[in-house]
Amino acid sequence: MLTPVTDAFAADLRARLPAACFRDLTPAYLEEPRGRYRGQGGLLLAPGTVEEVAEIVRACAAARVGVVPYGGGTGLVGGQVMDSGPAPVIVTLERMRAIRAVHPAENVLIAEAGAILAEVQDAAEAAGRLFPLSLASEGSARIGGVLSTNAGGVNVLRYGNARDLCLGIEAVLPDGSVLHGLKRLRKDNTGYDLRHLLIGAEGTLGIITAAALKLVPPPARTGAALLAVTDPQAALDLLALAQGRIGEGVSAFELIHRQGLDFLAETMPEIRQPWAEPPEWCVLIDLGLGAGQDPGAALEGLFAEAAGAGLVSDGLIAQSEAQRAAFWALRESLPLANRKIGAISSHDISVPLSAIPDFIACAGSALAALGRFRVNCFGHVGDGNLHYNVFPMPGETRADHEDKRAAIKRCVHDLVHALGGSVSAEHGVGRLKVEDLERYGDPARLAAMRAIKTALDPAGIMNPGAVLA
Amino acid sequence: MLTPVTDAFAADLRARLPAACFRDLTPAYLEEPRGRYRGQGGLLLAPGTVEEVAEIVRACAAARVGVVPYGGGTGLVGGQVMDSGPAPVIVTLERMRAIRAVHPAENVLIAEAGAILAEVQDAAEAAGRLFPLSLASEGSARIGGVLSTNAGGVNVLRYGNARDLCLGIEAVLPDGSVLHGLKRLRKDNTGYDLRHLLIGAEGTLGIITAAALKLVPPPARTGAALLAVTDPQAALDLLALAQGRIGEGVSAFELIHRQGLDFLAETMPEIRQPWAEPPEWCVLIDLGLGAGQDPGAALEGLFAEAAGAGLVSDGLIAQSEAQRAAFWALRESLPLANRKIGAISSHDISVPLSAIPDFIACAGSALAALGRFRVNCFGHVGDGNLHYNVFPMPGETRADHEDKRAAIKRCVHDLVHALGGSVSAEHGVGRLKVEDLERYGDPARLAAMRAIKTALDPAGIMNPGAVLA
What gap in Å lies between CA A135 and CA A286, rounded to an integer? Predict the structure, then answer.
């Protein structure tokens, strides 16, 4: 059983930690972007060193006080706020924000967990390198949270998820011991890979305090195109064609449905739309090529072949970096437009690539049996990852359908599961999907997860209630 | 405490498993390539299905009999032979050899653990795809072993280690439960990543029975060059130059020392050497490019710039696929020449990329204090991974230096550790490096590894004596 933070516990910590570690617990630390969870009061601590993090965790382990690690607060599944149970210690990594080192010749950067993702990108760029992880919240998400949730984003197709961009971690384990694993190695086969165990564990197995991150040489030439595709299958065929012609040069491949463009027109009319009459489906292709290559010519060649094969009917190829940025601004504005419309239920799902057309078709029919909705289906189709968000019809509000939310979610998730997919492709489990994990998770896997959790955190102090009930 | 296989135990299994599962325990299953370990007798089982593997493991767990998983037998650290303790069950995966499915549109292939690596490569090629894992023993190594040891090889620079090429696994856990994790997903953030925990665990946490493997579109154009470099630092500078100019198109970047070419000339004079007077250091660069690109031109451009910068003094660019194959045959013959000469001590190490020149210089001086030796230092320098092998002087044999072997190993490994490196870059821990892991491993990491091992395998039946003492 956990115990709440008490005055005596706080006083004891005050005697052991510098004053700078203590911060006022403002409401921001108890909220999350979708407003579904409300954290409860407790003690907010902002350690400045890994030793201070270890001191905090040791004290919490001894007193059986819960520890909630807090990054940038951008998580969408409630992993960062503990909404029930004894009042915990909230550990924000915001003071551990240093870029400890950049090794451009090795393509490695060492960042503390509190570094903002955009700061890491900037530090890489200043060294003539690229840190390719890119996602909508990069201006506030912190590296520790990005790793703890194994964040994805738009460049996974080429460069992988957060875990694929991490060579080593420093972390404080649930007993307060420090895992010194900031290796700058591409190959190290000496035992169990605890790095990959902590990455994606959402703070339930320890607190990541720093990471050795992979950098890449930035592409010399970039390009982008918005191509209208016949249907989702044509999008997949176009992807295969693009990868066959251009290889790893295809950095991103995003699917956009007309519904998203309509939402944009409705909520943000200031954003210039590429088409007067939007196609039902289009894709945004982004290229990053070497110095001797011509992205425009590559995209024109791709378009010609795809048009000949009946995959694409229309398209725009960015003629400048500004146009490429405009294409991306369009794509990155979709989530904001969604928020302005107000989804009844949002789903971050993945299915095997070839099951995408089936998923889209079947989800549409299954939802129709539950009522009339608008669906904005978009996302990282190159990774099999779609954001499938369900909205009320014009004139209705999400509140009108609150009673249908559970059924909609269940309907979408059941279909995803039946197709061999994942009900959380890139956002994690947090608190929102604990029941889904129970329902859809492999029993042997769940049992092994519980055994590992109990072995490393016998008192259950680390992020109580997240991932595993 | 484990118990040995008894006649009663074997009889019980005979009643529960088809006769095809029982094979004669021939000496091959008790040997390993370097001849340092000799396995002991026990019971050899060749299950044909994952359910039969589970049945075996459940029986062993109940009776506390050790289980040694056996792949292709090519491991170089004794992970596949149990040389002491109660006689175990040896589980060979050779009957589970099917390619269960190929999904070219998804770039995914499902292979059973007993599939030979070369068979997987062939199945991918037949579907117009590439499975890029490539290593010297690919003609006999099996996928289960390749994953269990997180094997590396020559294409890690571009495509990653075995773990980076695996999307999901099916495995039998130490309690005999079956982990159904053959997901074909690029993104799945639903809880702890048990796939990465079992990959590289060398059979100590369960038996991998099948895997969903990543394929890639094969490069349309390939090319290779052998370039004489001034010194190891020049090799690194050349790598950075190549990656800056050609990006991911650089598939492999291998360092070769003159000693290796001399060994080749001595032991395999039939192999044609590229130089009459070999340079002290050279690198083999391999390119895989898109359809519109010209590997020859890319290599010529690279050579010109590198020569201008004083990095390379001489070089050969393959003018045909046959010449490229000849360059690779030269590289791949180095280990065989080494075996013919007979190393006193072999080391599979990695250090941060920028520490490579220091490592080579310091290791040379440190060894000189122990005696006069020949050193063949070669390998995957693009990954920071060197095979640093120490040989007797001409006229001497390895037996003359048997007493110095421990000191040589310690000397090399101490230096690697001091430089932040790994004493097992791609071969694993097995039984050979258990003590090294104890000596150099992070205490918190070792404690967490032990806790996980105990949690998942409380009786310690899985590959006893490997990885953890």
Answer: 15
Question: Does A201 contact B192 at a Cβ distance shorter than 8 Å?
Answer: yes
Nearest Cα of chain B lies from the Cα of A415 at a distance, in angstroms, of: 15
Are residues B247 and A217, on separate chains, in Cβ contact within 8 Å? yes
The answer to whether the Cβ–Cβ distance between B444 and A152 falls below 8 Å is no
For residue B448, the chain A residues in CB contact (below 8 A) are 173, 179, 192, 194, 456
Which residue has 């792949």 as its token pair? B71
Give residue-wise pLDDT tens across range B225-259.
999 999 999 999 999 999 988 888 999 999 999 99
Residue with tokens 């390009």: A223
Query: A328 and A285, same structural domain?
Result: yes
**Is A327 domain-assigned?**
yes
A288: containing domain:
219-340
Do A233 and A312 lie in one domain? The reply is: yes
Phi-psi category of residue B465: left, alpha or beta, with phi > 0 → left and psi -120 to 50 → alpha: left
- Give residue-wise pLDDT tens across range A66-98: 999 999 999 999 999 999 999 999 999 999 999
pLDDT in tens, B301-327: 999 999 999 999 999 999 999 999 999
Mind telling me how many Å the CA of A80 is from chain B's nearest CA?
A: 15
- How many structural domains does chain B have? 3
Q: Is A428 on the interface with B (CB under 8 A)?
A: yes
Measured CA to CA in angstroms, residue A345 lies from A342, A364, A406, A427 at distances of 9, 14, 8, 15
Tell me the CATH number at A298: 3.30.70.2190
Cα–Cα distance between B135 and B137 in angstroms, integer?
A: 6
User: What is the rounded radius of gyration, in angstroms, for the C-alpha atoms of chain B?
Assistant: 23
Q: Are residues B224 and B313 in the same domain?
A: yes
Note the pLDDT tens digit of each residue in B14-66.
999 999 999 999 999 999 998 889 998 799 999 999 999 999 999 999 999 99
Q: How far is A271 from chain B (nearest CA, A)?
A: 31
- Chain-chain contact of A448 with B194 (C-beta, under 8 angstroms): yes
Same domain, B354 and B412: yes
In a domain, A23, yes or no: yes
Query: Are residues B147 and B115 in contact, defined by beta-carbon separation less than 8 angstroms?
Result: no
- As to burial, measured by CB atoms within 10 angstroms (0-12 exposed, 13-18 middle, 19+ buried), residue A406 is exposed
Q: Which two tokens stand for residue B213?
A: 């493997």
Q: Specify which residues B178 forms β-bridges with.
A: B172
Of B103, B150, B444, the CB nearest to A178: B444
Residues A155 and A256 in one domain: no
What is the dihedral sign for C-alpha A346, A352, A357, A361? negative
**Is the C-alpha dihedral spanning A124, A130, A132, A134 positive or negative?**
positive
Question: Residues 196..215 of B with a Cβ closer than 8 Å to A: which?
Answer: 196-197, 199-201, 205
Are residues B211 and B110 in contact, defined by beta-carbon separation less than 8 angstroms? Answer: yes
How far A235 CA sits from the closest chain B CA (Å)?
Answer: 12
Rg (CA), chain A: 23
Contacts 24+ apart (CB under 8 A), B410-414: B411/B363, B411/B366, B411/B367, B411/B370, B412/B345, B412/B347, B412/B349, B412/B363, B412/B366, B412/B367, B412/B388, B413/B347, B413/B349, B413/B439, B413/B440
